[in-house]
Amino acid sequence: MKKVAVIGSLFAIILVFFGIRRYANYAVKKGSSFMNQFENNNNKQQLNNKHESDEILTIYYSNSGATEKAAKYIHRQVSGDLVEMKLTPNYPDDYQQLAEVSKDQIDNNVHPRIDNLPDLSKYRVIFLGFPTWYHRPPMFINTFFETGHFNGQTVIPFTTSMSSGIDESASYLEKMGQNKKIDLQDGFRANNQTTIDKFIKQYQ
Ligand SMILES: Cc1cc2nc3c(=O)[nH]c(=O)nc-3n(C[C@H](O)[C@H](O)[C@H](O)COP(=O)(O)O)c2cc1C
């Protein structure tokens, strides 16, 4: 009888031992696959973000630095590419000369060349920055719309100015963007971070 009890106990111990081992294996496997899934999701999330930010372009011209500051701030928020437009002829730094040259371009319908316009067709969203001159966009903005290759981009104009809002540029921008394959937004005046933050949230 004693012998039977000993054998029974041994058998029970063996059963418990293998049971625990099996459960431990299962738990480790389950745990690692959960971690893999988490890591994969995490990678995918990063790829998605990268993919989306790759499709955003912030392109601008700035003469005295205000629009550049705004463009760089926008770029820091939305990532993607940042391009400062190089123009021919270039504008003078001197205020009086700049005032004359830019007015003359309006009067004579001059469209300055943009020397480094990237292939716009690869972007989904384009932030287009310029200073307001004479209550309207500078004349090279005509060139941007004329020479850019568009296939459905959302174009978001932003301007810096002494006081003019983006609304003063609206009718000019609408005309320039007419019959282009773009989704032209109203845009915004980008003189301070609060306004910029408010607008770019919609497009992130
Ligand atoms: C020729 C010229 C015309 C301007 N016209 C206007 C205007 O119509 N309305 C306005 O609010 N500011 C006007 N400004 C001020 C600029 O829009 C403002 O200083 C802008 O932030 C400059 O941008 P930037 O530093 O990127 O060149 C004008 C400036 C210049 C040089």
From TrEMBL:
One Pfam family cited in the UniProt record for this chain: Flavodoxin_4
GO molecular function terms attached to this record: FMN binding; oxidoreductase activity, acting on NAD(P)H
Superkingdom per UniProt: Bacteria
PROSITE patterns: FLAVODOXIN_LIKE (PS50902)
Ranges for domain Flavodoxin-like: 56-204
Stated name of the protein: Flavodoxin-like domain-containing protein
Organism, as annotated: Paucilactobacillus nenjiangensis
